[in-house]
User: Which sequence fits this backbone?
């Protein structure tokens, strides 16, 4: 991965404005997902060049681009291409991550700390192995395997799972279908409230196992319900369901940590 320090000539306001020109607010959930998945491949125990993380913008190349977990993210990568054309001094890796960080604030969350300095690799030689991202069909043990590998604890697992307060699942991408909340474009703590306050039953359909609310409008995944079934996760769900501002603050810090994984030290906010 590259190790050049950020150029002082980069104008964050100008780059952010260029992002807003091509990324409407309603696409912010997809922007968050791109930043999350570009970063969530990191393995703190991997000392090779394939340790993962957001440096390098490696998702442009196979095998990472073909990981089933990244289905549909080419849409957001293509949407952001004009930003790179307008600001060639900024790496695609930084553009992806700044877009995701800014999308949280645009959707109603707290400002996510961000620093420039990521670089882009020229090929897929440093792509991390596929299969490192969370598998929504599994449970608490799997969540811990994935997040502990990146250096997160149980509290941060719950916090980062709260990203599901934004967006929805699509059958042509993940195979799952539906939103977690009544307003999938608003960053709030409804996800945690819904986990606790709604009776979730397994959906009867031809797709993968997921859960539905009584109205049939909302859904949860097995990894979501694991948060209220596990005795160490559950108290954090309760805390964030009760305190939205605390969730927003803690999410901004945990997301900034995620977005800097695998990056040069000067990128860590």
Assistant:
């Amino acid at each position: 991965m590259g190790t050049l320090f950020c150029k002082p000539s980069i104008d964050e306001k100008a780059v952010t404005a260029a992002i807003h020109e091509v990324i409407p607010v309603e696409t912010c959930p997809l922007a968050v997902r791109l930043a999350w998945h570009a970063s969530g491949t990191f393995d703190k125990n991997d000392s090779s060049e394939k340790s993962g993380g957001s440096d390098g913008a490696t998702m442009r190349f196979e095998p990472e681009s073909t990981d089933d977990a990244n289905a549909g993210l080419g849409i957001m990568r293509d949407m952001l291409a004009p930003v790179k054309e307008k600001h060639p001094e900024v790496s695609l890796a930084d553009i992806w991550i700044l877009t995701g960080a800014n999308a949280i604030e645009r959707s109603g969350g707290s400002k996510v700390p961000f620093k420039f300095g990521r670089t882009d690799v020229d090929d897929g030689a440093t792509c991390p192995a596929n299969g490192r991202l969370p598998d929504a069909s599994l449970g608490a043990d799997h969540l811990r395997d994935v997040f502990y590998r990146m250096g997160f604890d149980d509290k941060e697992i719950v916090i980062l799972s709260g990203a599901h307060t934004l967006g929805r699942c699509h059958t042509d991408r993940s195979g799952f279908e539906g939103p977690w909340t009544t307003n999938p474009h608003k960053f709030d703590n409804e996800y945690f409230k819904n986990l606790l306050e709604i009776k979730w039953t397994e959906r009867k359909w031809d797709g993968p196992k997921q859960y539905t609310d009584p109205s049939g409008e909302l859904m949860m995944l097995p990894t979501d319900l694991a948060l209220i079934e596990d005795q160490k996760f559950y108290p954090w769900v309760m805390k964030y369901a009760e305190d939205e501002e605390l969730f927003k603050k803690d999410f901004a810090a945990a997301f900034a940590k995620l977005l800097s994984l695998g990056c040069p030290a000067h990128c860590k906010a």
Summary: The longest strand covers residues 168-169. Strands lie at 168-169, 178-179, 201-202, 211-212, 219-220. The CA atoms of residues 76 and 184 lie 17 Å apart.
